[in-house]
Amino acid sequence: MGHVNERDLKSMANGSVHGLKFNNNEKLSDCEICASEKQVRAAFPKTDEVRVSNLLEIVHSDVCGPMRHASNGGAKYFVTFIDEKSTWCEIFFIKTKSEVLNVFKEYKAKVETFTGEKIRALQTDNGREYCNEQFDTFLSEFGIKRRLTAPYTPQQNGMAERKNRTLVEMARCMMKYADAPPSFWAEAVNTACYIRNRYVTRTTGEVPYRAWTKRNPTVAYMKIFGSKAYVLNKNPSKGKFESRAEPCIFVGYSDESKAYRLYSNNKKRVIISRDVKFIYKSGFEGIFEDFANVNDKYRENEIDVVFENRKTSRTVSSSNEESLDVPAGEASAGNSRRGRGRPSYARTGQRGRPRKVYQQRVEAADSEEDADESEYFHECSEDMSANLATEDPQTLAEALKSEDSSMWLKALEDEFLAHVRNRTWQIVEKPSNRKTIGNKFVFRTKDANLKKVRLVAKGYAQRPGKIFTRFHLQ
């Protein structure tokens, strides 16, 4: 019978088949073949059999990462610590897994001081960031019991695993809505943790903030992640006619004061302030466009472009402004995000040049200035034609005939709107003694199957001795 199971044998013996001689009251002996070849994992209970009764009785922890893009502060991972009793979560951002012990020490000192309780047990998986001699020594020194999951059984650390998944999902949604660059993932995850601590938890039916602090939270001051905001300029030496506020982007809530975290693109750093006016539209729009790297010297030069005058259906509604309403009754015992200190907000993750590049031929320039210009356009053509070594479309017709035509059309629209926002072209009359320079679309598939399209000028077609800083596109 092909090692059919006992339940099905008894079912067939009830008359569904003929010729089977089997007594339903008979108990089959154990089959070693079935035990060997049909073994499956034991079922996991949906909830723990015994719930804890005190804060910090059991702390769950897990590391998430590495992320594909480093954060603005250089972090590649985040680690969460969740108190099982209250489900209150603290989060830290780290560059390497070797920093887990250091952030656990910081977490332990913080929460034990706040609650007056002691951590009794730490539940983690078997990762080396937790299971090492230094970590064992520290736990033994403070009498903290270690609770490990069985090998290859992440379900036993379900509270931490599910928390990380929830935070990543929330952060991904916020970044998508705000059109935030990937390097802002840490700010989004940190904000997600802050918000999640003020949600009702399904397993306990209580808000973690209330269970942790014994006070009801307020959410009236919460804003939309990525919103454009204007921060009051408090510089005492500013002139009478200087701007009163600086444009910034809302990226979260301060864990050290009753204020907001706002990213200044001018200063490339985060500002903590409570004197803010919010405008509910994306603050990232038009700031971090993924164009080809262009030298500032040439970006500042005037460029006249003959461009097809198309109308866009995109409209922008008038913005709604709102003044800051700082919470009065909520303590700033929010989740920690310091990790390894305040991040420096330098742009990271610039794309490197592909290994195989189709090089366009550029005629040598006579003068040193022409040589600089020629080298610049040579590099641009090299970078923008790099996709010839890939399977991406080479022409608009190929893109529209491909299986991903709808995605390429969306990328084309995004590229056009980006040019409109940044005012990269101007319609002019073509001088009678000038020839127009051709242009083309460059198609590229990036990470996570993201489609990007760039409209580029065929700068390599220019001749030495002619004006490089003013040219016309057909």
Q: Determine the strand fraction and express it as a percent band.
A: 15-25%
Q: Indicate how many domains the architecture comprises.
A: 4
Helix content: 25-40%
Distance between the amino and carboxyl termini: 77 Å
Radius of gyration: 30 Å
Overall CATH class of the largest domain: Alpha Beta
Order of helices and strands: HHEEEHEHEHHHEEEEEHEHHHEE
Class derived from helix and strand content: alpha+beta
Instruction: Classify the fold: give the CATH topology of the largest domain.
Output: Nucleotidyltransferase, domain 5
- Unreliable stretches (pLDDT < 50, length at least 5) are 289-390
* Number of DSSP E strands: 13
Query: How much is the average pLDDT?
Result: 74
Superfamily (CATH H level) name of the largest domain = Ribonuclease H-like superfamily/Ribonuclease H
Order of strands across the biggest sheet? Answer: 9-8-7-6-10-11
- Name the CATH architecture of the largest domain: 2-Layer Sandwich
What gross morphology would you assign?
Answer: flat
The number of distinct helices, counting runs of at least 4 residues, comes to: 11
Taking the sheet with the most strands, its summary is: 6 strands, antiparallel
